[in-house]
Amino acid sequence: MGNGIISNITGYNLCGTGKVRHLRTTQMADEINAINDKMLKANARYVLIGPGRWGTKDRFLGIPVTWPQISNAKVIVEVDLPDFHLDASLGSHFFHNVTSMNVGYFSINQGSKRQ
User: Fold this and answer.
1) Cα angle: 99, vertex 108, 35; to 5 degrees
2) Are the beta carbons of 1 and 64 closer than 8 angstroms?
3) Out of 6-20, 31-45, 47-61, 70-84, which region has the weakest mean confidence (pLDDT)?
4) What is the pTM of this model?
5) In terms of C-beta distances under 8 Å and separation of at least 24 residues, what long-range contacts does 18-23 make, across chains too?
6) Which of 99, 109, 98 has its CA nearest to residue 48?
7) What CA–CA distance (Å, rounded) separates 81 from 98?
8) Nearest-CA neighbor of 26 among 49, 2, 58, 1?
9) What confidence tens digit (pLDDT) does each residue in 49-67 have?
10) pLDDT over 70 for what percent of the chain?
């Protein structure tokens, strides 16, 4: 979504590289919040990569963070996994935050045959 160049990226946060447990996504949100707080204090912008939908209210669709918990991410990547199938997040609040704050957004469907 969007276009342009995003610079000043100083790190990344990759979540759920193994089997993601749906019952632990709320705990994952707390851990991401702690990382985001550290990034805010260091004025470090980062790429946030994780399974399913960011900010979902349904912990079985992704990680239920709120916008302040990921506020210093300059690029957000949603990746579908075998247990986390997703369509791109286009909710009005999410879309507004992404566009108004010039945050890059990618939705990666690993099951897609398209390259």
Assistant:
1) 65
2) no
3) 6-20
4) 0.80
5) 20/51, 20/52, 20/81, 20/83, 20/84, 22/59, 22/60, 22/83, 23/59
6) 98
7) 23
8) 58
9) 888 888 888 888 888 899 8
10) 76
Tokens of 68: 């302040």
For residues 115 and 56, what is the distance between their CA atoms, to the nearest angstrom? 27
Question: How many CA within 13 A on the CB side of residue 48?
Answer: 30
Where would I find the H helices in 4-113?
25-41, 92-100
Q: How far is it, in rounded angstroms, from Cα 8 to Cα 21?
A: 32
Alpha-carbon span 37 to 53, nearest angstrom: 21
Specify whether the CB–CB gap between 13 and 32 falls below 8 A.
yes
pLDDT at 30 over 90: yes
The alpha-helical segments, DSSP class H, found in the chain are: 25-41, 92-100
